[in-house]
Specification:
disordered N terminus, TIM Barrel, 9 strands, 305 residues, nine-stranded parallel beta sheet, alpha/beta, 12 helices, 45% helix
Length: 305
Amino acid sequence: MNDVLLTGTQPTKPRFSFEVFPARSGAAALALGNAVQHLAAEAPGFIAVTYGANGSHRNASLDLLKHIRDHTSALPLAHLTTVNTSRDELKATIHRILDLGVHDFLALVGDPPKGLGLDDPVFRDALSAAELVELIAEARAERPPLTSVGRTAVAAYPNGHPLSRSRGADLEWLAAKQQAGAQFAITQLFFHADEFLEFVADARRAGVTMPIIPGLMPVATSAQLRKVSALAGQPAPKELERAIERVGGYAPDLGVAHTIELSQAILAESIDSLHLYTFNRHEQVLAVLRELGLLTAKASPGHAQ
């Protein structure tokens, strides 16, 4: 079902998509441009571009969306967050993104601005993701006919949202986002296949029918593993953590191997899409996809190391 939704064609093999974030320096921008070209060459379902809380890095996000739209054959998908942003500001940003020729969105509340907690009014009073889904639909309806027929995605949390009271509350939120018009969900990171598969099974029992795409990231360093652990809300696998530390904290091959194993377990259960968080590098994610037999472009030097 994921494949039909994301490509509009009869599924033949699992699909994949990527996430990148705006570069923060000139050198990083050059490296990111190179990575995007490699990623786009493999015909992903889309390349998502992050968008910081409170609209931080907004212009950089829009520039990157435009670059993907104008200089690759990949479909860009724009993250959009609501924290500390008014409804009118959000709608103006939606129209600005649509004016770039970008029609697909990931609707998020986002993180509170630096120095503020989850209980701060800036966070509590932000539009919900479901309300943002509705606002995106409203903005599309204001466009000329047939000029914006994009898709809207939302986030899902296999190990629970930080503000969630329970698994049941998480699923109620996800169902509400579907009811608001969301067409598919992308998960936050996780370390074990059962965490994702059990979440999907519970979501189906709760009436969530839209595709739920697993989000995966092949870590390269101990620092990345700690970051993923914080995002996942779960401790990292001890064996992976120790193995990376034994070789000095840098071991992209170990992160790739773990993600391949995780992907194989998920794909074996008839899941037909993967979303790969790239950390703005193409080598590791393409190494995962190559091992899974999912790449479509001919291998070329530099695609994976």
